[in-house]
Amino acid sequence: MKLFDEIPQARPATPLLDAVETPSALRTLSVAQLRQLADELRAYLLYSVGCTGGHFGAGLGVVELTVALHHALETPHDRLVWDVGHQAYPHKILTGRREAMHSMRQYGGLSAFPKRAESEFDTFGVGHSSTSISAALGMALGARTAGEKRRACAVIGDGALTAGMAFEALAHAGHVKANLLVVLNDNEMSISENVGGMASYLARILASKPYTQMRANGKKVLSHLPGALEFAKRTEEHMKGFISPATLFEEMGFNYIGPIDGHDLPALVQTLHNMRDLEGPQFLHVVTRKGKGFIPAEQDPIGYHAITKLEKAPLDVAREAPAVTDAPIAKPQKYCSVFGNWLCDAAAADPRIIGVTPAMREGSDLVRFSKEYPERYYDVAIAEQHAVTVAAGMACEGMKPVVAIYSTFLQRGYDQLIHDVAVQKLDVTFAIDRAGLVGEDGPTHHGSLDLSFLRCVPELVLMAPADEAECRGMLSAALAYPGPAAVRYPRGTGPGVATGHDLEPLPIGRGEYRRRIVGNPDVRVAIVAIGSMNMPVTEVAEALNATHFNLRSIKPLDREALLDIAEGHDLVVTVEENAIAGGAGTGVAELYLNAGLAQPMLLLGLSDSFVEHGKPAELLRDCGLDAAGIRASIEARLAR
Ligand SMILES: Cc1ncc(C[n+]2csc(CCOP(=O)(O)OP(=O)(O)O)c2C)c(N)n1
Question: What is the enclosing helix (H) or strand (E) of 618?
Answer without folding.
Answer: helix 616-622
